[in-house]
Amino acid sequence: xxxxxxxxxxxxxxTTQKQALAESITSIYTRVGLPAFYVDVVFVxxxxxxxxxxxxxxxxxxxxxxxxxxxxxxxxxxxxxxVRAKMLAEIDEILTPHIAARGDLNWEYHIVETPRDLWKIQxxxxxxxxxAEEKLWARENKASPWEKTK
Length: 150
Description:
single chain; alpha/beta; two-stranded antiparallel sheet; 3 helices; globular
């Protein structure tokens, strides 16, 4: 599951903009075969008097915290094919029309990775990445019980 938490002023995004951004974010992951229901996007409204950057109020700030659980990037040392840089470039590409292109917002994001074995959906441990069971979950767009094979 990728979990995206988008912190911003309550009026930064209207409902249509939130929907479009959530769909763009989801597409990053469905393109590599993850089920759409793995992707959670949460818009967190933050009043201007509660958002500070460098000790100063920042009402025009969008701060995004991304948590990857379903799939992890290779470590910096093992990333011989530039997978990490490609992921950041893809995120930049999808955020640009929704945030950067507006010109009135400052923005920042980071990604953390949680071990996959510390994650469950509907009380079910997820099946292996790109395995037959996960492909079934993607087709059905929901979790279902599966048997772990050795």
